[in-house]
Amino acid sequence: MLELIVLCISAVANVILALLVFVNNPRGIVNRYFFLFVMALISWTVINYISLYPFLLPQLLWVRLALAAATLLSMFLLLAVNVFPNSMPAYKHLNRWAIFTGIPVTILTMTPLVFSDLQYNQGVAVPIVGPAILLFGLYAVGGLLLAVLLLVHKFRHSSGLKREQAKFALVGIATSFGLIIFSNFILVAVFGSTILIPFAPAYSLIFTVIFAYIILRHHLFDIRLLIARFVAYLFFLLVVGSLYSFITVILSYLLTGIQPSLTQILVSAVIVDILILFVQPLRAFFNRVTRAVFYQDAYETKDVLDKLASVLVRSTNIDLLANKSINILSNALKPEEMTMLLVDETQKDGQRLIYTGKKKPKALVDFSADDLVGTPALLFTDILEGQSGRLRTKMQRANIAIIARLETKGGIIGYCFFGYKTSGSVYNQRDIDLIRIACDELAVAIENAVRFEQIQAFNETLQQRIQEATKELRTTNSQLQRLDEAKDEFISMASHQLRTPLTSVKGYISMVLEEDAGKITNVQRQLLDEAFASSERMVHLINDFLNVSRLQTGKFMLEQRPTDLSKVVAEEVDSLQSTVRMHALKLKYKQPSYFPLLALDEAKIRQVIMNFIDNAIYYSTEGTLITVELAIEDAQAILKVIDTGIGVPKNEQQHLFSKFFRATNARRQRPDGTGVGLFLAKKIIDAHGGSILFESAEGKGSTFGFRLPIKKLTPKDTEGTK
Description:
Rhopdopsin 7-helix transmembrane proteins, 5-stranded antiparallel sheet, 21 helices, 14 strands, 61% helix
């Protein structure tokens, strides 16, 4: 009874693990090999037990079956270990070798060449070994040893989770099969003792428990999903086994009057459950065999659609997509010919013919999309009588059996032409369903590919236009640069040429004002003052242009010398007082009592100060006050020219210090301005290491000025020409 309990517990534990692994991923090669290995292990333990207490069959046959199960156990273990744990074989040809040698050895174990007979010693059956026992031992034991070596290799050359999996698998195999080999082979073959054979199921249970630990501890499989699936299988097996046992007992008692023992009932129930597990794989196997023999045109619709979906998802080129799709459907349906006609507005005739052969199908040349307008989505040649004789004639001449329309919500994409089957059979309902589904998927994929091509064409056209526009802009920019250089050259030349006569004019006016040519009247003096002021402004303007020209040519240099900025500002304010009076304005200078000397380019700084005050004069209204302030704040010299004039519009302030820019209201107030004064002022102040001050509000006035760093411009640090 103890032996039977050990066997049942071991068998149930192994079945649980095998089902957990298999139902998780029936397609996974590791799962399949592991499932077959555990089934072989269960078969071996059950048959091994029955060989000690035989029924139905002779004891010698049960012993030989145990050897066959042991051979399969070794083979499936080797197959599983070779691909464990990531489905990639460690050695490509090992699986083929294991199968091609394992099957003959399995057959050999059923012959007298391994165990020729049994001899009984005190009621215990002892096998008589044959000449082929060594071959069996080499394969069975050698396969187990090779599996162990493979696990050792994987353990040494892996890391992380894979290393842990290999380690526990190695421990499980070494422990379980070490005990099994010792008790079932070494003791039997060497010492002729079978005393430990009944405990073999307990040894396999060690292996089961360790692999269960791998599952739970190291997440080799999804345990929650596996348990959910296993419960369904377990209840199914329990119900079937219980019903079988109940029916067996009743029928045996009613028909023979013999009541089976508990051992016989349990063993037969386990065998029935094992056979049930193999029903589905065996049915699938024989279905494939019978289809291959009797129905060569058979195909799996799901496999065909999976292959087609893979192509449709990965391909964006229409010709490549269509050709691959034609090949997949042709391999499944086996038509004599298959062609695709697509609506294509980019072609001259508005359509594109796609085929897989080297030669264009001549019979399809006469077909056009217009011939198929208004026809059903699936058009069969054989049922066209009375509907369209002309179309039927065309289809027969082209040897076309079915025309399927490719259509999406956006409209008709094209048509697929299917020739008659090479086998001579007709298209059945499964073929038609496949064509419908495939054509729907094809239509969507081709529409997406067409849109992709349109986007690519648009991108190429856009890129070409951008390149052309860029080229045109570069040409225009080059022309503008040449014009700008010509303009700068003209300004420089004109400024130099105007400077000499203007200096003479200014000098002669000054002589007249000083009455070197005789006394002048007050009216004459007023007119001459205006002429002198205008000539002075003209000289300053010419100097501005010359400095701009120097900036353009890189010849703009500062001539810094110790300068009393307070005095320079006072002189510029005094020189502009006459202009202030002519515009009916007031100009006030808040001069500091003390101001340090700074290393400045006096002439250029005068230009900046004069420009700020001059702008304030011309853009202020009569009767207003212009204030000039000079002070020291935060170790900086700060000059401000404050007016209450027209101000600068807010949206134009960011461009104010650009070359030749003038605000809109400034152009109306003073049309003769040039727009270089503020540009040049900023350049001069920047060259001194300072910064421009500017605040303005349209209609309320402006503040122009600058900041100069006193420490940096102290004469002892910056004396000399820079």
